[in-house]
Design goal:
Layout (H helix, E strand, L loop, with lengths): L6 H17 L4 H9 L3 E4 L33 H13 L6 E5 L21 H10 L3 E4 L19 H25 L3 E5 L4 E2 L7 H14 L9 E6 L10 E2 L3 H11 L2 E5 L9 H8 L6 E5 L1 E3 L2 E4 L5 H12 L6 E5 L8 H20 L3 H9 L3 H11 L4 H11 L8 H11 L5
Parallel strand pairs: 1-2, 1-12, 2-3, 4-6, 6-8, 8-9, 9-12
Antiparallel strand pairs: 5-7, 10-11
Helix pairs in contact: 1-13, 2-10, 3-10, 5-6, 8-9, 9-10, 11-12
The structure holds L-rhamnitol and zinc ion.
Length: about 425
């Protein structure tokens, strides 16, 4: 049984932590305030293994794979919202939702993806408005017969391209609707699976086709107060091991040339390449970025986010660069081998803990040492900071935000599992 510390224990530990940080010139209360203003976009697709409601038998495809068969998966939008409500209730702060088009509610009617309308997301809007969530959005360019060749916007077949262009156009309009209705811009992120298993003879033409398709998708100007467009690259996927049309360089160039957001997925780079290091480079030339915070393991890019060095480095870059308002933080992982609500809670809390640690850094001192060329002191302080009682600040933050401390949220999840999930 997981026990929670008492409010007194948390308060006492926090008082000591506050002093320790104050001695380094760090204001712990201010850090908590700043943390409470950061919203993370929870990806709906962790709740049902990227299934959606369009066709329960559709194969995921697109190089995406979800392993595991933990019981209790959401089977419809009401169940998914119920699960999300449970997850949000165990995460400190106010957060967003990231939707895919396959989560449309069409009242049992088959609506082709290119014909999807804002009304098919009206119930999501009602729910988000009632619960204070912004929504982000994604066209779904996989799990569909028109994507069976592995190519969509970059296909040699003009009919296939047209279909996906129309789908992406419909998605942007839905994104604008979501942003307008909820009073907070929706980030609509385009990711396509297009690539080849084996060595291509022509790397160039599909990229030219992709550029042409994107130009058509993005031709309609939408109010940035409602919709912001993002494009997401990838290194490789299952079935696209040798060539991905939408590579990092392709989309970096596209984003710079066309003033759209670049989406960086932490699982989409070479294993020793750091996504964190890219942020300040890209934000020198691109106005805003979207992050898909994820955790790559071997070939998989989508394990539940945990408090790794990479995650801490990402959070540090966002905070140190003063980029909080230019970085949209989303999550992207799918694990069906554990309780899906717990996966959201663990991943989101890890991301928030990394942000808190970054907000608690004595960054002015570290920077001064660096500028003065005192790299010995910088290294010593950086190492010392790792042992500071940030966990006591996190516990106090959870208590203030009225969510369970430590892993005590597990009790709620276990109760939810036996009362709700086990009856599905
Ligand atoms: C795939 C991309 C993409 C998807 C989601 C479902 O490699 O990361 O973001 O995971 O859109
Ligand atoms: Zn992603």
């Amino acid at each position: 049984m997981i026990k929670s510390p008492s409010a007194k224990q948390i308060g006492d530990a926090y008082a000591l932590a506050k002093e320790r940080y104050a001695a380094l010139g760090v204001d712990t209360d201010a850090a908590m305030d700043r943390l409470s203003s950061i919203s993370i976009s929870l990806h709906c697709w962790q709740g049902d293994d990227v299934g959606g409601f369009e066709n329960p038998d559709a194969e995921l495809g697109g190089g995406l794979a979800v392993t595991g068969n933990y019981p209790g998966k959401a089977r419809n939008a009401d169940e998914l919202r119920q699960d999300l409500d449970k997850a949000y209730s165990l995460i400190p702060g106010r957060h967003r939702l990231n939707l895919h088009t396959i989560y449309a509610e069409t009242g049992g009617r088959r609506v082709e993806r290119s014909d999807l309308q804002p009304e098919h997301f009206a119930r999501w809007v009602d729910w988000a408005r009632a619960n204070g969530h912004g929504i982000d959005f994604n066209p779904t360019c996989f799990a569909h017969p028109m994507a069976s060749s592995g190519m969509t916007l970059a296909s040699y077949d003009p009919g296939v391209r047209r279909f996906w262009i129309d789908h992406c156009i419909a998605s942007r309009r839905i994104g604008a609707y979501l942003g307008r209705e909820l009073g907070t811009p929706c980030v609509t992120n385009i990711w396509i699976p297009d690539g080849l298993k084996d060595t291509p003879a022509d790397r160039k033409t599909p990229r030219l086709l992709l550029k042409e398709s994107l130009d058509q998708v993005l031709a309609e100007k939408l109010d940035p107060a409602h919709n912001l467009d993002a494009v997401e690259g990838k290194l490789f996927g299952i079935g696209s091991e040798s060539y991905v049309v939408g590579s990092h360089e392709f989309y970096l160039g596209y984003a710079v040339a066309n003033d759209v957001l670049l989406c960086l997925d932490a699982g989409h780079y070479h294993p020793t390449e750091s996504m964190a290091d890219k942020i300040s480079s890209i934000l020198t030339f691109v106005d805003q970025v979207l992050l898909h915070v994820s955790r790559g393991v071997r070939w998989d890019s989508d394990h539940v986010v945990t408090l790794t060095d990479e995650l801490q480095a990402i959070a540090q870059e966002i905070v140190r660069g003063d980029y909080v308002n230019r970085v949209h933080i989303g999550l992207d992982f799918f694990d069906a081998s554990i309780n899906r609500v717990a996966a959201w809670v663990i991943g989101t809390r890890s991301a928030l803990r990394a942000l808190l640690m970054a907000l608690l850094e004595p960054i002015d001192q570290l920077r001064e040492m660096e500028v003065a060329g005192d790299f010995t002191a910088r290294l010593a302080l950086m190492e010392a900071v790792k042992g500071l009682p940030w966990g006591a600040v996190w516990d106090a933050y959870c208590l203030r935000q009225n969510v369970p401390v430590g892993a005590a949220y597990l009790r709620d999840i276990q109760a939810y599992e036996s009362a709700v999930l086990s009856h599905r």
